[in-house]
Amino acid sequence: MAKKVTMQKIADYLGVSKFVVSKALSGKDGVNEQTRERVIQAASQLGYYTQKNGHIQPNKSATNAGSAIRDKQAVLVLMPNIRSQTQDSLYWGKIVDGIAVALDAEGLGMVIISEHREDNVVNILNPGGILGLIGVGQISTSQLLAIHRLGLPMVLIDHEDPLIPTDTVFANNVDSMSRLTNHVIGSGHKSLHFLGNIKYSRSFRDRWIGFRSALEENNIAPQNEQDPMLYVDFHADTLFRETVKSWAAKLSKEGALPTAIMCANDHIALKTGDILREEGLSIPKDISITGFDNIEDAIRAATPLTTVNVPKEAMGRTAVARLLNRAKVPVAPLEKILITADIVHRESTGEAFPAAPVSS
Predict the structure, then answer these.
(1) Which residues form the HTH lacI-type domain (predicted)?
(2) Which has the closest alpha carbon to 239: 198, 209, 197, 289?
């Protein structure tokens, strides 16, 4: 039997005192952020959070599966107002709609918190009336740890944290992007480029993996992983525009402009399409472009966008079902649920033709 991971073991591993470990894991003041992160990292590596003592245990009445769950009146939906993660978003808002519909069907309320400071989240919470948490989008480790300490069950949508064990719900990003890339290759394209910051989120990284695997299957060399276009910030509009414009002009001058650009999401694809049209390129005659997510703007674009339809409402509903099951059976194995996403064929992709030159 594996030995129990204690605070003393973590302290010995790091060469600090048990007192420091205790403060760091409990979220108390008196430990600087660098030390706190080291303690959290070590606790995760040693398996502290997978133990029953890894968080505050709820009382027995809170873990009974039947009427006790119904005593909880609401589910906390945490969606920090960063990186366009708001209810008004054409992507995140649809996920929240799915959560709301599923909770309403169960007779449960929803409390949405957009706060991104962990101490404020904990102060707002009344754990006695909360069934659990559904996290939507990127959430900091410190926030998730604060919720984890309370012993609340959690399900994360489109995000996972290596330090916090929890159920997660994603679109099947790898397979979907691989199928989309194979479709474009089947139209004759041999020069394809991925555009989007692969460090932005797990989903973006997985989409890059799907793109790269499809190219390798077809004996097409993918772009170098040091390519700056794999790290471009699409939230900074001016910088994004200047970067894409100069990149396209440089490759055009070298006769190396790709015939297809596969974008990490629809927002990137729509912005890129506008920039290239301004530079005199016709879509898809000169260059094909694809997106991912199928937001409402994708079909309203100047050239309707070929994309992948992420079933956003279904992701929200699935997270609710997973949370209810977790509340009933807290010790069940953690699950990572992948929702199938389908290709939507529109006018932004066509057969391969040599791209027209871009004005410098």
Answers:
(1) 5-67
(2) 197
Q: Is the pTM of this model over 0.85?
A: no
For residue 155, report the phi and psi dihedrals to the nearest 5 degrees: -135, 130
Given the candidates 1.10.260.40, 3.30.365.10, 1.25.40.10, 1.10.10.10, the CATH classification of the domain at 1-51 is: 1.10.260.40
Where do the structural domains in the chain lie, given as residue ranges? 1-51, 65-165+312-340, 173-306
Residue type for position 353: F
- Do 65-165+312-340 and 173-306 fold alike per CATH? yes
CATH numeric code, 173-306:
3.40.50.2300
User: Which amino acid makes up residue 170?
Assistant: F
| pLDDT tens, per residue, the chain with 360 residues | 456 778 888 888 888 888 888 777 766 667 777 787 787 777 766 766 655 555 444 434 434 444 445 555 789 898 876 656 667 788 989 999 999 999 999 999 888 887 655 555 555 566 567 889 999 998 888 788 878 877 889 999 999 988 888 999 999 999 999 999 999 999 999 999 999 999 989 999 999 999 999 999 999 998 888 899 999 988 888 899 999 999 999 888 888 899 999 999 999 999 999 999 998 999 999 999 999 999 999 999 999 999 999 999 999 999 999 999 999 999 899 999 999 999 999 999 999 876 556 655
Cβ(347)–Cβ(304) under 8 Å? yes
Q: How many CB atoms are located within 10 Å of the residue 251 CB?
A: 17
Round to whole Å and give the CA distance between 342 and 289: 17
CATH topology of domain 65-165+312-340: Rossmann fold (3.40.50)
